[in-house]
Design brief:
64% of the residues lie in helices and 1% in strands. By secondary structure, it is mainly α. It has a single domain, classed as Tetracycline Repressor, domain 2 (Orthogonal Bundle). The protein has a two-stranded parallel ribbon. InterPro entries: Homeodomain-like_sf, HTH-type_TetR-like_transc_reg, HTH_TetR, Repressor_TetR_C, Tet_transcr_reg_TetR-rel_C_sf.
Length: 269
Amino acid sequence: MYNISACGKNDGVTTEYSGSGDPQRSIELLWGIQERGKRGPKPRLTVEQIVQEAISLADAEGLGALSMRRVADALKVAPMSLYTYVPSKAELIDVMLDRAYGELPRSEDVSGGWRAQLERIARENWALYHRHPWMLHIAKSRPVMGPNLIARYEHELRAVDGIGLTDVEMDSVVSLVAGHVEGAARRSVEAAQAERHTGMSDEQWWAAHAPLLEKVLDPQRYPTAARVGSAAGAEYGAATHPAHAFEFGLQRVLDGLEVFIQARTRDKR
């Protein structure tokens, strides 16, 4: 079972943007360029200590609770001292995100072919988002290319390398799978957060409101919605089931990719 109950009250209201700080400074932090060239007395802290404390805070209370002051308090140092190591919260978030990607396995198992590999990758990312739900509140349209993000991209591309796709198609395939996983994980985390904030599970919420909904939902006016909605509600005990949506969607994405890859292979014969 995934530990997604630790996110704090700030989750869902804060969106941060990767690459919104100074990209040069972020790259220096991500690749350790600044630390490698540093001389003088041994510093009291390291960037890694700061980043790990920030991740722990975001895991426990959500991204909205993250601030340089909160991290400094946890490390028992003055807030201004953190800026000696990390320029601002924006660059800190870039490094946090990359460190989280570093938790992904890098299995060399190629059994089962590209489909089994992509499915394994999808499940690994699904688990990562549930360990660190704050990652879902970072817009990544301008990613800062850290070592772990690039290693993740390399690993995922290898799953579809040499099967007849162009380089652009390979990129599109891994992006498609990643997009499904992130969207499904976001809905799953939001469902868990709703339960925590309201004190009611989805099953309890629907059970409490079902009688009123039955009164206002006219099956003659909405026959298909009434029939299908009732069947889904009976199956899930709620309007949706995030884990089922992830599993069902993943297999349909892979089914579609299989048809596409087979067609590309035939075209090249």
